[in-house]
Every structure is written in structure tokens, then in C-alpha cells.
Amino acid sequence: MTLALSPFRAGIVLALPLVLALVFPAAAQEKNVPTLAVTGEGLVAARPDMAVVSVGVVSQAPLARDALAQNSKAMTAVIAAVKEAGIDAKDIETSQLSLRPQYSYPGQGSREAPKLVAYEASNNVSVRVRDLDKLGALLDRLVTSGANQIRGIELTLAEPGPVRDAARVAATKEAMRKANLLADAAGVRIVRILSIAEELLDGPRPVVMRMQAEAAARAPVPIEAGEQEIRARVSAVFEIAPK
Fold it and tell me: For 209, what's the count of Cα atoms within 13 Å in the CB-facing half-sphere?
């Protein structure tokens, strides 16, 4: 079989070497200019304004359906208490639901098989609390309503974007400052920026607290939000020339 290229396609094939010939010399010339490479890091501290509470109910019963029924009843009360505390439904999300058999294991060396003794049902929800002043009271309400597991509390930022952008700006300014400092010390001048790229860093690390539900019920829970640090780092390459 013989394939024929249309005039249009043939034009593309013939023009391609010419395009490459124009691009490659320009790239080669760019690499020959003297350069100065620096990195800059920016840090911005921000106070957390949101908490994510992971709370749940664990129930046991001899029959699976009874364990699940008891658990569902208790969790319904917990979710109702959360909503009564003013938490919007969009900020309440089921994070885990499980039903597991529980066994009693014989002593070491015994030939007896494990014995089924009960079923354990577990249901956990994540609750976003956007007003930290209400967090302590909410924890008390959760335990009072029937929650027996508080798996963790994360203090974080609801909108980290603006803070992260501020860190990027600070990192870029730091890179510029360092480049001018080094160029001046070396007796050269900055001509232009050839490239600038952001290096990926971890986002703000949420503060995680864990507690037993019984402890939360015995005393008020003081919460101190503190501050979180958001970092950004950029790498920049500058063209330099003699002064």
C-alpha cells in the first residue's frame, strides 16, 4: 500500500526542520549568558480560624443488628446535638462506618477455636467548626449527647490561599534581595530574570489533639489556637553583566 501526503501535511513536514533550526540556536545562546541562581524563602504566621473535630460512637451487642441499631440511635442524637449547636449540615460528614465481630481467644497452647462474643459497630463523623469560641462548648455537648470517641481535633485555616500567596510574595522579594546583594558584592549587575519557579513545600500543618471522651466530660476543655506558619520557597535565575 502506498500512502500519499496531502499538500497541507507535506508542508508541515518540510517546515518543521526550519522551525527547529530557529529555536535551538536561540536556546543555546540563552545558556551562554552569565547567570546568578538564588533561592528565597517566605514565612507568614497566621492564627487558625477553624477546627475539624473527629467524633464517634462505638457500640457493642451480642447480635450484629442490635449493635448497629444501638449505634445508629446514639449517632442520630450526636448529629442532632451538633446541628443544635449551630453547625451547618454541609460541615458534618460521615468519615467511617464499620461493623466488626469481636472474639474471645483461648490461652496460649489451647486448641480451642476463637469464640464469637459480640459485634462492635462504630460510626464517626467529621465536624468543621468555623467559630473557635464555640469549640469547648461543642465538645461538652457531643459527649453529653452520647459520643464516646473523640478521635482528634485539627486546628487549621479555613482559607489558606491568601496566606500562602503572601508567603509566595515574601519568598520572591527575598530572592530578589539576595540576588542584588550577591551581584553587588561580586561587582556585577542584574540584567533580567531568566526564570523563576516555586518549590513545593508542605502546606500548613494542622495542630492535632486527641482526648478521651470521658476526660472531656469531666472538665471544660480549654482550647488555645496559637499560630501556624506557612512557608513558600522560590528559585530564580538572573542574567548578570559587568557594571
Answer: 19
CATH number of this structure's domain 50-156:
3.30.70.2970
Distance of CA 242 to the CA centre of its chain: 46
- DSSP type of residue 132: G
**Cβ-contact 190, 36 below 8 angstroms:** yes
Grid coordinates 547567570 are at which residue?
35
E strand or H helix that includes residue 58: strand 50-61
Residue with the bigger pLDDT between 200 and 37: it is 37
* Domain boundaries defined on the chain: 32-48+159-206+227-243, 50-156
- Tens of pLDDT, residues 195-230: 999 987 765 555 554 544 444 444 556 677 778 889
Q: Measuring CA to CA, which residue among 118, 241, 232 is closest to residue 188? A: 241
Contact residues for 88 (Cβ-Cβ < 8 A; gap 6+): none
Backbone angles phi, psi at 42, to 5 degrees: -120, 140
Largest CA distance in the chain: 89
Q: What's the CATH architecture for 32-48+159-206+227-243?
A: 2-Layer Sandwich (3.30)
- Per the CB < 8 A criterion, the answer to whether 154 and 50 are in contact is no
CA distance 211 to 140: 12
